[in-house]
Structure formats: structure tokens, C-alpha cells
Amino acid sequence: MERRLTSRGAERRRQLLATAGRRFAEHGYHTTSVAEIVHEVGVGKGVFYWYFESKEQLFLEVLAQAQAELRRAQEAEVGDEVDPVRRIERGIRGALTWLEANRDVLAVFQLAATDVRFVGALRAGEEIMAAELAGHLKDGIVSGRIPDGDPLVLAHAVLGAVEALAHTFLGREGAWDEGVADTAVAFCLGGILATRRRGASGSS
Predict the structure, then answer these.
(1) What is the dotted CATH code of the domain comprising 1-52?
(2) How far is CA 27 from CA 31, 41, 53, in A?
């Protein structure tokens, strides 16, 4: 059940989530204990269990919060852009810029992807992102800016490419430069926009 929190309680909960997210990213899920988290925040275990039922629930909330913040960063970058192709480009750049500033999130995503307790929640969040991106792709297809295709399949292809680049170039300190975003945009949009040309050349 969702507890109604005071402003102080909400801040304490935020501190627990932020500390846990960083420790999970740095030390892994199994080797991070509730005792370590509350010691760093400066509270007792009783306070922790007031906000969270278990370490597992805490991790799921860290994951959900990270995915929601990533989506918000993309939405903010897309803004009121009318051109669907530009919306896709801006979403890719927004995602990579946010991930570059929040590198710990990549490790949390990796942990979730390799643990049966969390992979379902990770995939559910990815489906939300794919559905939002598919909306932009569908707009592009309807307007004729993007060749015909399955928007959801294309969305997963784009997300997969961006995720791979992020893990490769943002997963270690000092590896980021703007060329990664340029490459992601060129690769993803090049593949999407070239579909019609490939189909036409293949049928000639």
C-alpha cells in the first residue's frame, strides 16, 4: 500500500533510493546489503522497512524510477517537435545525453537483465519506451516521411542499437563524446529511411 509521506519522509525515501541505486551499480545486487544502505544514509533498518518491504522491492523501485526518468528526459528533448523524424533523432540524443549524466543506471539495467526476479520489470519498462517510439514512427509512416514497416519492430530495433552503444561507450568513465550520439542517429535513421530504397532496388 502506498504510504502518504511528509516532505521529510519523501526526502528520506529519495535518499534511500539514490544511495541504493549507486551501491547496486557499484557493488552489485547480492553484495549490497540493507545494513550498508541505511548506514550510509544515517538511519536504522526500521526506517528502511517503513518505506520498503524488502531489498528486492527497493531494487524494483530503483529500476522503475530510472526508466521513468529516462523517458521524461527523452520527452523533454522531443518537446513540441512536429517532424516525426526529428522527434526520433531528438529522442535518441536525449536518451544518450541523460545516460551519460547517469552512468550508474546502465549498471542497474545490466543487473536487471541478468536476474529472473527483475528482468520482467525491465522488459515492461522497455515495452513502454518502444510503444512511445512506435508512435513517432507510425506518424512518420502515415505522413510519408518514413517508408512503410511495422512501427513496433522498428522501435525495438532503434532501442536495441541505442542500448548497445550506450553500454559500450557510456559503461566506462571517459568513453563518451558527442560522436556516439551522431553515430546512433545516423545508424538508426539511415536504416529506417533506407527501407524503401532497399525494397525498390531488390524488386528491380
Answers:
(1) 1.10.10.60
(2) 6, 17, 21
